[in-house]
Amino acid sequence: MFMHNKELLQPVKVERPNPTYAAMLTEQLGGPQGEMKAAMQYMAQSFRIKDPAIKDLFMDIAAEELSHMEMVATTVNLLNGHDVDAPAVAAGHIESHVLMGLNPALSNASGYLWTAAYVNVTGDLPADLLSNIASEQRAKVVYEYLHRQIEDKYVRQTIDFLLNREEAHNTLFRQAFNRVQGTSSTQDWGVDENARLYFDLSTPGKYFDIKDPQPPVFRTPDPGARQPQ
């Protein structure tokens, strides 16, 4: 069961309409790293999870991603303004102005419609968690690109909030991954001799080796630690 709270997760506003940037921001509404993809992926993955704590985590984050979708769509609405004006869109899609009456499109920034092909579900919890960690990382990167290309202080505040929520989800998925070590596809990691074989096919130089392969383990990020530049 879902319930809709009429208040946004975080209030959004814009300094002025910007239809071209509205088209760009649509990337995070219906693009392959966007909020709809994240919500559908985590929800779909949750259906067969047996661990109640991890199932709850997936559904909590999926529900929040739907809230992010609402924030992005509302911002796109504000950026599009009140009047259809396709010539004002200097780049990207113009469907909102010629087909949908400014309704935010479930598409990427080029107008390609959202597809369930974006959703990754394997039924293997470690594999799905690694996929989700990567999804959150990619989403943060897209938000960082979007942040650099707008001067509107209110849009930047919205993006700051959203990309920091991607970091929170990334951390939570990493904690869940540590919890499932030694299960499913992480069992018997590196036991077979072929799992310890590294092909050095780009000579000169052999910078890595896997004589003693270890499954991936994630530490909880230290917010006070200085990050490499």
Automatic annotation (TrEMBL):
Residues 208-229 are annotated as: Disordered. InterPro entries: Ferritin-like, Ferritin-like_SF, Mn_catalase, Mn_catalase_dom. Belongs to the manganese catalase family. This is Manganese catalase family protein.
